[in-house]
Design goal:
The chain has 409 residues and is an alpha+beta fold. It has helices at 53-68, 83-88, 103-111, 121-139, 166-172, 191-197, 213-229, 241-251, 328-339, 373-379, and strands at residues 11-16, 21-26, 28-33, 35-45, 73-80, 144-152, 159-162, 179-181, 201-209, 258-266, 273-275, 284-285, 290-294, 297-300, 305-308, 318-326, 352-355, 358-365, 382-388, 391-396. 27% of the residues lie in helices and 30% in strands. The protein has an 11-stranded mixed sheet with strand order 3-5-4-6-9-7-8-10-16-15-12, sandwiched between helices. A 4-stranded antiparallel sheet has the order 17-18-20-19, covered by helices on one side. The structure holds zinc ion.
């Protein structure tokens, strides 16, 4: 545990609005060790400082688990994200902590390769948070499962976002809430994409609207379910397992479908964006329906689907996304195709060719590719990496069905 000794032991005070008292929060909210042959379940709360409900829920559930003293398989860790931002109740201080997880940045954080002038709050937070995760990865042999707890500015049913790997699907499909695939193609460098590429199961759970009691309850239910689904605790050891499951199922309005992102409406600096009033997350939209106004021009839906993450706060560069349900049939087809490694035939699709002769990376030429090429690449587990003119680069995720045999973070 080489880094632990030098980690700053920062502690902040948060007001627990559900219990009506203050709580002390430090980077490690809880660390519960069990038998070494199990998974390592890592929860992160408060990656964004204006989203305290995940942290409060972790505090509540971990307190309960510690009291129960279960026969834990593996280890459970509850970590806090952006401590300074949590203390101030702001999303971040100088830089979004959930957009800095490029491999080069992580390497710099590991080596503490920064000039004093470069050390802004989020660099410090990243060094400390990664220091802890890195220590765990070096010390623990079992598989890693990351669950990042968030909330949204808009009123929303709880939902999951994740990269489309079979490992992630296997975990997420047990949770009775909708799952949205593909958001990571629009977010730059969130922590979950980084650890996913190391071969960990990783998903973000959006528990509802910021600072609502309901969101704390949703996060608590999810944490209990994750303790069971990861294999860290047996279902019968979880107090009221069924109740937590039913709670989430009802809050998600019985919707456990899988969706894909179809479009993103960006907002450039200086542009005036206004969402049409009254949209909630996952609201159905019709083709040509007016959705928002951008610099005085009305934006209409290009196809029928659903609205996702409409922006009703002042700050932000994502106006809204549109999503569409993926039929179970296609999920099964893509599972079977990936099992059979049929992605090897992608190079025969019109307008699609392997990059440097490897099936791991594909170049799609919009000018000649068919409209369905992108969808097929997504279903085969490829992620859009880069766009340049008509060309788009797609990369296959390295760890689809299982993580590496020996982890080298
Ligand atoms: Zn967030």
């Amino acid at each position: 545990m080489k880094n632990s000794k030098t980690l700053k032991q920062k502690t902040i005070t948060l007001f627990d609005f559900t219990e009506g008292h203050s709580v002390q929060i430090s980077r490690v909210i809880a660390e519960i060790k069990g038998r070494p042959d199990g998974p390592n379940l890592v929860f992160i709360g408060g990656m964004h400082g204006n989203e305290p409900t995940g942290v409060l829920a972790l505090k509540h559930v971990m307190r309960h688990v510690e009291r129960l003293q279960p026969m834990l398989r593996g280890n459970v860790y509850a970590l806090a994200g952006n401590l300074t931002a949590l203390e101030r109740g702001e999303r971040f201080i100088e830089n979004d902590l959930n957009r800095v997880w490029h491999a080069d940045n992580v390497e710099r954080a590991r080596k503490r390769d920064y000039q004093p002038a470069e050390i802004i709050n989020e660099v410090e937070e990243q060094i400390e948070l990664w220091g802890k995760i890195d220590d765990l990865m070096q010390a623990c042999s079992g598989p890693f499962i990351f669950v990042d707890l968030h909330t949204t500015s808009v009123k929303s049913v709880p939902f999951i976002t994740m990269s489309d790997t079979i490992m992630n699907r296997k975990f997420a499909r047990k949770v009775p809430v909708p799952t949205v695939l593909g958001i990571e193609e629009y977010l730059s460098e969130p922590l979950l994409s980084y650890v996913n590429e190391l071969g960990c199961v990783s998903l973000a759970f959006e528990g509802g609207q910021h600072s609502e009691t309901e969101s704390v309850q949703n996060h608590e239910a999810l944490i209990w379910l994750a303790l069971a689904y990861s294999g860290a605790m047996k279902r019968i050891e979880i107090p009221n397992f069924r109740k937590h499951f039913e709670h989430l199922r009802k809050r998600a309005l019985n919707n456990d479908s899988v969706y894909e992102i179809r479009s993103r409406q960006g907002i450039d600096p200086g542009q005036l964006f206004q969402m049409m009033p009254g949209f909630v997350n996952f609201q159905k939209i019709k083709r040509d329906e007016p959705l928002a106004r951008l610099d005085g021009k009305t934006l209409h839906a290009k196809e029928k689907g659903m609205i996702f993450m409409p922006l009703y706060q002042a700050k932000g560069s994502d106006g809204f996304f549109t999503i569409r349900k993926i039929k179970r049939f296609w999920l099964t087809v893509s599972y079977v195709f990936r099992r059979l490694k049929l992605y090897r035939i992608l190079r025969y699709l019109p307008g699609v060719r392997p990059y440097m002769k490897s099936d791991e990376t594909m170049v799609v030429d919009k000018a000649t590719a068919k409209w369905y090429s992108t969808e097929i690449l997504h279903l085969m587990g490829y992620r859009r990496k880069k766009r340049q003119g008509d060309l788009t680069l797609f990369m296959r995720r390295k760890f689809d069905f299982k993580g590496p045999r020996k982890r080298k973070p």
